[in-house]
Amino acid sequence: MRPALLDPLFAPLTTLPGIGPKMVRPFGRLLGRENPRVIDLLFHMPSGLIDRRARPTIFEAEPETDVTLEVRVDGHSAPPPGRRAPHRTFVSDASGDLTVVHFNIERARIERLLPVGETRWLCGRVTLYDGMRQMTHPDRILDAAGLAKLPPVEPKYPLTEGLAGGHVRRAMEAALARVPELPEAIPPELLERGDWPSFREALKRIHQPETPVDGLPTGRAWERLAFDELYAHQVTLALVRQTQVKAGGRPTRGDGRLAAAILKALPFRLTSAQEEALAAIRADLAADTRMLRLLQGDVGSGKTVVALLAAAAAIEAGRQAALMAPTEILARQHLETIAPLAAAAGIEVAVLTGREKGRTRAGILEGLASGRIGLVVGTHALIQDDVAFADLALAIVDEQHRFGVEQRLTFSRKGAAVDMLLMTATPIPRTLVLTLFGDMDSSELREKPPGRKPVDTRSVSLERLDEVVGALGRQLRDGAQAYWICPLVEESDTSDLAAATERAAHLKKVFGEKAVELVHGRMSGADKDAAMARFASGEARILVATTVVEVGVNVPNATLMVIEHAERFGLAQLHQLRGRVGRGEKASTCLLLFRGPLSETSKARLAILRESEDGFRIAEEDLRLRGEGDVLGTKQSGLPGFKVARMEVHGALVSQARDAAARLVPGNPDLEGPEGERVRTLLYVQERDAAVRLLSAG
Ligand code: ADP
Ligand code: MG
Questions:
Q1: Ligand 1, closest atom to CA 334?
Q2: Element (DSSP H or E) covering residue 142
Q3: pLDDT per residue as tens digits for the range 422-448
């Protein structure tokens, strides 16, 4: 049970003064949670800072950055009545002059704000205009009393529609007042070495910084919270590993008989990358330790076949294998690939998803319990309580990042000393494998099966949308199908994001009602599946979607991928999406629609995508570019789960966290005593409840 001390953190945001029910939606959108809680807000980190302490002179003020200038007001130049020219105010300090520009402002008002001969403080951005320094519409014009009331350093936050910086800052102030002083979970020597503040103090420094460095990822406060997150993660990994080691392993040694039959039925030869991965998996299975291996490979790199051959080894040994995918569609697609091959080898395969009910389901459960079914492919339905295996040897998880630690654990408990194979189509740079998974072995399918046609990738300005729709029309006439990806679901007045709903309506007008299907994240699973199925069967020709198609649906006839607002996606995500095409005989195209002007980093990112189809290289470049200061959240890069830690900044803390966890867990496997208690509290704060449950489960 979560300690009562933490209750204020996990209370709904609406328990804060000033946050009414109307604010739930915008805050929910901002924080990525339907019913946001106080803790979600506290972990909403600033994207930058406004520093009012450094007071450059007019001459020193860096153009295009937020500054606060102390100036003397020299005079005004109002436009002649009736003209739409701006009002100009001339100000200066010892270093130079600046023109303050206001459009549509009453003369009397501006002369009151900036009285000639007086000293005033201007907050805003200096720009150079024809070699002259000017500030257009300062954020604030203050006198000495006003300046004294303003915090010297103020965080800026990522915002969303319906929320202004002021809303977030006020809510944050109320949230900070609720933060309890927590028992210190970080070992004292680390705390000292890092010179880190307490949890409570760290949050306060980040959200109400007194110096600029307080609010930055490189500051001690942020570092401390990043360490909390990384430490909780590493302790969780250590606990999971310990549970598995405790359970020991069982050697599973196949004789190669079924694998040979499958290979004979395959219309192709394995690539050497596949051969290598398979050899490593077979060796793991045969060893008397438990396997925990990551199989990484781009979409289409041939992971499914490797998974099947691994399963064959388990079945040859008289045991069973199971493959769990995150969606019904994916599970059925795996089955389609697997079923004919398994049949050729005489392996009995079943599928188990939410759709199998009643007698069908009972039959499958009986087959699994008796051992008749050698391989089962399914969804979460596989880990329900009443699913029991005669002797499960190998659990395979596809798109592993879509499952929580707890689900993977439940899966691994469906047998004695189950070996785990985790598959992912989002390649993770080696340096991050350690961070995310701890000590896990990894196999990479870098080499693509032969005969793959490269996807012709181009970036196109959104201004040329009509041409794109024209090109789409030509493709459809040739019998092809297309994906059209949009980043958000609903068009709003203030946001210029292309909305999937509006785009679908537009395309329906052009190509007909039945030609277009729409899928987005707010649809029910069944509706989504039905829409995708109509596209997969060819009934619909265009699938307009938010990023839900990211998972590995396979429609070989789809040869065109259009991604709107490509500049808003992470590189890895774009690469994943592109992997939906280029799966059939015909040449494929990927159009990255962007809204200009693009920043240098955005240009570089799109260029990498045009140049390369190697997911590993793309992931590495993505990490490098982010390290060079593009502030993209981990969410966008497709890496799961870290709210505070930034790999490009806090990478060095990972090994410290890992070492600390390695010192703690073996000596105190059940997290008992005062230190154990403190770490448990940390695990709850970091929402690693699953890890705590491991303890009580023993
Ligand atoms: P992944 O699961 O990694 O996305 P799949 O296993 O679904 O990829 O493989 C994609 C396609 O490539 C499938 O149609 C599969 O039959 C085919 N394939 C797999 N391995 C090879 C190979 N060595 N040579 C040719 N085609 C292959
Ligand atoms: Mg796959």
A1: 7
A2: strand 140-142
A3: 998 877 776 677 766 776 788 999 888
Homologous superfamily, domain 455-632: P-loop containing nucleotide triphosphate hydrolases (3.40.50.300)
Neighbours of 400 (CB within 10 A): 23
CA 200 to CA 580: how far, in whole Å? 45
Q: Given this model, what pLDDT does residue 595 score?
A: 82
- Size of the chain in residues: 698
Provide the pLDDT for residue 207: 95
- Stronger pLDDT, 595 or 355, i.e. the higher one: 355
Residues 6+ apart with CB under 8 A from 7: none
Q: What residues form DSSP beta bridges with 349?
A: 375
Indicate whether residue 303 lines ligand 1 (CB < 6 A). yes
Any ligand 1 atom below 6 A from CB of 552: yes
Average pLDDT, the chain: 87
Residue 506 φ then ψ, to 5°: -60, -50
Work out the pLDDT band at 115, boundaries 50, 70, 90.
very high
Per-residue model confidence as pLDDT tens digits over 632-682 = 333 333 345 678 988 778 878 988 998 999 999 999 999 999 999 999 999
- State the residue for tokens 């009562």: 4
Is the backbone peptide bond immediately before 597 cis, with ω within 30 degrees of 0?
A: yes
545 and 520 Cβ atoms separated by less than 8 Å: yes
Ligand 1 neighbour 410 (Cβ under 6 A): no
CA distance 73 to 171: 36
Q: How far, in Å, from the CA of 635 to the mean position of ligand 1?
A: 28
Collapsing DSSP states into helix, strand and coil, what is residue 698?
coil
**Fold designation for 50-156:** OB fold (Dihydrolipoamide Acetyltransferase, E2P) (2.40.50)
Q: Determine if the pTM surpasses 0.85.
A: no
Rounded to an integer, what distance in angstroms lies between the CA atom of residue 365 and that of residue 373? 9
Q: Which atom of ligand 1 is nearest to the CA of 271?
A: 23
Residue 256 C-alpha to ligand 1 middle, in angstroms?
21
Ligand 1 site, residue 449, Cβ cutoff 6 A: yes
Give the DSSP letter string of 46-111: -SEEEE-SS---TTTPPTTSEEEEEEEEEEEEPPPTT--PPEEEEEEETTEEEEEEESS--HHHHH
Fold of 251-445: Rossmann fold (3.40.50)
573 contacts 547 by C-beta, under 8 angstroms = yes
Query: In the chain, what are the domain boundaries?
Result: 4-48+172-205, 50-156, 224-246+654-697, 251-445, 455-632
Other Cβ atoms closer than 10 A to 28: 16
Give CA–CA dist 133/97, Å, rounded.
7
pLDDT score recorded for residue 389:
98
pLDDT at 496 over 70: no
Could you report the per-residue pLDDT of 193-240, keeping only the tens digit for each? 999 999 999 999 999 998 888 888 889 999 999 999 999 988 988 888
- 416: DSSP letter: S
